[in-house]
Amino acid sequence: MARVTEKLLAALGAMLALSAFGIASAQEVALATDSPESKFLVDAIRGDLAEVKLGELAQQRGESEGVREYGKMLAEDHSKAGKMAADLAKDMKVTPPTQPTSEQLQKYAALERLSGAEFDREFAAAMVKDHQEDIAKYEKQANGGDSKVAKLAEETVPTLEHHLAAAQSLQSGGNASHDHTPN
User: Fold this and answer.
1) Residue closest to 37 by CA, chosen among 151, 117, 129, 118
2) Helix, strand, coil: what percent of the chain each, to 5?
């Protein structure tokens, strides 16, 4: 019995140590046993948190008015989407994350070092790539059944598509249009 307790305490200590150093949170460790819907929600919330931060950065660093407007739209829309996803996560007894992933934070840090036209160009390219990937994930989840998570994913796709079109416009030298109604 003492060996089992000892092993359990060692495992808990390792998880706490990893969490304290930012290597992995207890929630990330626990995700391995969560449902695919829970994992999708956690990933979606992390994505929304990252997009809000990137939108705020674009408002500060964007050289063109289009990039600054896009940043405002991004921050507003992903704040709303993040709140909806977090509310659903809580209803499902899933603890919503409060930070983007380390990879998302690295992308932010890389963009944060840029300014002027270089920032605008790299930001637009990153937004095109991110929103293409997000649309694929959300469509897959939306087609995965008739759950509340699938419905949330389905309702979010049009906003993501609008963000993609606006990012593509920015990438080709156009302006980001903010005239839409996000779900």
Assistant:
1) 151
2) 80, 0, 20
Question: Whole-angstrom Cα distance, residue 166 to residue 71?
Answer: 11
- Which distant-in-sequence residues (6+ apart) come within 8 Å of 90 by Cβ? 96
The tens digit of pLDDT for each residue in 7-32 reads 334 444 444 444 444 444 444 434 43
Residue 1: HSE in the Cβ half-sphere, 13 Å Cα cutoff? 0
CA distance 179 to 11: 51
Selected residue with higher pLDDT from 124 and 18: 124
Q: Which of 159, 136, 140, 153 is nearest to 51 (CA)?
A: 159
Work out the widest C-alpha separation in the chain, in whole angstroms. Answer: 68
